[in-house]
Amino acid sequence: MPASKKPTLRRLAVYATGLLIFALAQPTPTLYAIGCALAVAGEWLRIWAFGHLRKNQAVIQSGPYRHVKNPAYLGTFLITLGVFFAASGGQAGTTSRYLLILVLPFVLGVFFNYYLPHKFRVEGGRLRRRFGAEWDAYDRRVPDFVPSPWPRLPESGRWSAELVAHNSEVSTALLVLAGLAVLGSKFLLPW
């Protein structure tokens, strides 16, 4: 198994959370539609980002990177919210309500208090060492996570489907769509 595909604690936690979500899911049409909209918007953002990303080759300053330093993490956040909303519903007091009340705050707490700070620190340090003053100038101009509604930089690159595939985002997009389809089947078909 390649090193990048070895099960890590983070991957195992994501898989376990996914299984918990699907086990407890009792989607209702309204929350499912809201969740799908959020998840699709998040995946669209990730595809846009990875279509510009040339890892370790340059400080990427095109596409969504003109608005926010970490568009892929923002996309992941939207997908996470979307999946939780798509799975939630049912009657008050049912197990799926616990997804929004207990599990989602825990997942978001880990995401905002551990995952993002760790990633920002590690990636920021790596990019600073690799690109020096160019990274520092970009880092000062563009927000980390909450995007600026106006681009902070002029457009400097083009989106590429080949980069999306090279950055392995196609499998993630298919996984998100398959997960939403399974959740949708839970209110369309008797389980």
The SSE order reads HHHHHHH
Total of DSSP H or I helical runs spanning 4+ residues: 7
Question: How would you classify the quaternary structure?
Answer: single chain
- Provide the β-strand percentage band: under 5%
Structural class: mainly alpha
Global geometry: elongated
Unreliable residue runs = none
Structure explained in plain terms:
This protein has one domain. Helix content is 66%, strand content 0%. It has seven helices and no strands. The relative contact order is 0.18. The mean pLDDT is 87.
Q: Topology, pairings included?
A:
Layout: H1 9-24, H2 29-50, H3 71-87, H4 95-131, H5 133-141, H6 161-166, H7 169-188
Question: What is the compact description of this entry?
Answer:
With 191 residues, the protein is mostly helical. It contains seven helices and no strands. It has helices at 9-24, 29-50, 71-87, 95-131, 133-141, 161-166, 169-188.
Which key terms come to mind for this protein?
191 residues, mainly alpha, 66% helix
